[in-house]
Amino acid sequence: MTNTNVSVELEKLEKLLNKVGDLVITNSMMAQTIDNLPSGEAKKSLLEKINLLQRHIVELQDYATDIRMVKFESMYETYNNFLKEIIPQNKKIKFILVGGETKVDKSLIELLDTLIKKIISNAVSYGIETVEERVLKDKNEEATLKLIVNQLNGQISFCIEDDGVGLNKEDIEEMTGINEYTNKFNADLEVESETDKGTKVSIIVPLTHSILDGLNIKIGNNIFILPTSSIVESIQPTTDMIKFVGDGSSQLLMLRNEFIPIIRLYEYFNIVPKSKKLEDGILIIVKSQEQKAAFLIDEFLQQQQVVLKAIETNFRKVESVAGATVRGDGSIGIIIDVKTILEAN
Prior knowledge:
CATH architecture of the largest domain: 2-Layer Sandwich
EC number: 2.7.13.3
Catalytic activity: ATP + protein L-histidine = ADP + protein N-phospho-L-histidine
Protein name: histidine kinase
Domain CheW-like: 211-345
Structural class: alpha+beta
Pfam families: CheW (PF01584), H-kinase_dim (PF02895), HATPase_c (PF02518)
């Protein structure tokens, strides 16, 4: 049987994806130029052709990305076998992979492999009790170690979670020292722990390139991009939908018997809005995992495909910003990080 597999250097695939990103930007520039033309049959014909070109570019991007992406479930045996090798005889640990359908760049898996194994090893050595200790605490004698993979808003997270004894302050400080390693690929390390409940270590990595659908939103004279994957719906609020809480300084949106916190993005980004009155603006309900919020904006504009670039590569990490893109007119567009904003409120 003929072998149809071909080995390609990751660097060449990187160049291919970057070139596809350039095509998306060029297509956006052409679309904006055509949109500024006077109405007529010629404009209509050009719009049809540019839309067809956009579909071809999307397909090309999907193919190029798919070449270097693998479902993370393919790593299950690797980590399950590694865990079996290091478990001492007085401990029982079950490995569970959540989010295995998430596609991850092969090069990123190679970069993170050593770090993930180190965190698993720490959990086995220090975070998880022996069978005897767990039985005395009325816990299941078999501990659970989960590796949870999730992708959202231009970031991908790898969470290693156990139901063990939990780490003390000194252990956590020692764990955060791994940040020196994560700096190599602009990742963040977060450690959460609770006594006798367990520990959760999260590695959050920005995607260096990604093409996503975004909605242009306007606040004052500023235009931002909101990933459409985070948008639930948008509404024009009425007075009876706004409820005051506490001393009256905080407000909630009541929508279909659900109370949703309102975040005034003009305050978050320290800019002057068109209006500060909720009833004069638009509320866009966004969601990140189980969290919801209503973003107050002045208006929303067109939807478009954008090429996400991590700004920390050439600048520094900016809270609440997932990345940036080049607009059709050549200007820089800021992509909002919904997850970070919701977690901070």
